[in-house]
Each structure stands twice: as C-alpha cells, then as structure tokens.
Amino acid sequence: MARKFFVGGNFKMNGTVSSIKEIVNNLNNASLDPEVEVVVSPPSIYLHLVRDNLTKNIEVAAQNVFYKGNGAYTGEISVEQLKDSNINWAILGHSERRTILQESDETVSLKTKYATENGVGVIWCCGESLEEREAGKTIEVVSKQLESLKSHISDWSKIVIAYEPIWAIGTGKVATTEQAQEVHKAIRDWLKNVSDKVAEETRILYGGSVNEKNCGELGKQPDIDGFLVGGASLKPAFVDIINCKK
Ligand code: 3PY
Question: What residues of the chain score a pLDDT lower than 50?
Fold first, then answer.
C-alpha cells in the first residue's frame, strides 16, 4: 500500500483569534494537492475556532492529550473531549514537551496508547539532541523512544511518526536530506521489529525548520512521507509546503 504524503502544521503556542482566522481563510481558499493529507494543530484555546471554520478536508490536532478519561486532572484535555469537538488527532512527544515539560518516554507512550485505543490519531515525535548526535547516539536515542512506544501499543495504524532532531527545531538549522533520510530509513528498519506491514505502512515525517525552500528535496527521499512544520505553518508559504509534490 502506497503511503499517503502527510503534512502537519504545528502552530505551537502562537497566534491570536485574528491571525488564526487568517491562516484558516488562506487554507480554505488555496488549491491544495488532493494527494496530501493535511492536519493543523493550533493551541487548545483555538481548536474550536479552527474546527468550526476550516474546510473539512483538513483535520485538526491538539498539541497534547491526557492518558486518562475525563476526571479530576486540572489543566489537562481528554481524548473524549477532543472527539466530542471533532478533533481527531493529537501531536504527542514533541521535544518541547519532552524537555521543557519533562514528559518521559513512558508518559508519552501512555498518552499515545490512550489516544490511539480511543480513536484519536497521533503524530508521535522523536529525535535526538545536538549532544547526542555528536556522540553518534542518534539511532540509539530514537530506538529507545520507539522501544517504549512498542511496549505500550499494539495498533500502529493510528500513528504517524515525526522525526524531529532537536537541534533543528526553531533554530533555522535543517538536517541535510542525507541526514534525514538516514534516520528515517533506520526508523523504518526498526519498525520491522513490530512487523513488515507496520514498517511498510507507517508514515515517517521529517520536522525541524521545514520551509517552502527545503521541502522539495526532503520530500523526494524514499523514507520521508511528509513533514511536521513549525513556524512556516503560520505563514502563507505553508500551502507551498503542502503542494511540494505537485
Ligand atoms: C519545528 O519545525 O520547529 C517543529 O518543531 C515542528 O514540530
């Protein structure tokens, strides 16, 4: 089965009612490649605004979700609430949450398990720090993150993996196409530990300073099945990234 190209827009903690309406209008009026699956992820306060106004061809993702159902968990958001609001995706394990919010591999895996078992797709992020890359530990670090995930989940069909080297996030530094392809291939090889089918079918996105200029080359790599876009998803150029295969 051919893997459908996937482009996610991670707005992070950015935007206002008016700037987000502008992004939504821009996407609604754009001619988007129908062969590409697009998901945008605004901050939780704007999830409804986006879902209510955005074309239904584009799905919406939360930037976090809790690993338990509704209850006494102040400040958290539940899978049930997402589904009730027609939000069918969540980004989990982004390095900003792993480092700044100190989410462990275990926490990310538990969240991913709860979300996927209850009908919410997950853009599951992994990646190494600059120090780890320089120590030659990239594959080891990513494999450890994957290992934790594998020990908690059995259904991989609702997971899209985003490889995001931490040193390329918000720094303007992009992994070279060779560096990105090498890790994507290693992730696909690792997925054979789950099954050949999962290795063949799981989309692996590249994230980290993707923009309209570098997306073309990255998108041609055999194991790069799309992007998780940060800052550029807030700009009109996001449309060019979605259409990079056109
Ligand atoms: C970035 O491109 O900076 C990202 O973190 C995308 O998630």
Answer: none
Q: Which residue's entry shows tokens 């720094």? A: 171
User: How far lies 134's CA from each of 42, 129, 139, 187, 218, in Å?
Assistant: 33, 9, 12, 19, 22
CA distances in angstroms from 244 to 3, 10, 99, listed in the order given: 16, 18, 31
Name the residue of 11, 210, 218 to mutate for ligand 1: max ligand atoms within 8 A of Cβ: 210
Instruction: Give the catalytic positions in this structure.
Output: 94, 164
Report the pLDDT value the prediction gives residue 174, as an integer from 0 to 100. 82
- Give the pLDDT of residue 92: 98
Nearest Cα to Cα of residue 182 among 123, 139, 136: 139
Q: Six-digit token pair at 68?
A: 């338990």
Q: Which atom of ligand 1 is nearest to the CA of 162?
A: 7
What pLDDT score was predicted for residue 171? 84
- Distance from C-alpha of 197 to C-alpha of 68, rounded to nearest angstrom: 29
pLDDT digits (tens, 9 = 90+) for 80-105: 999 999 999 999 999 999 999 999 99
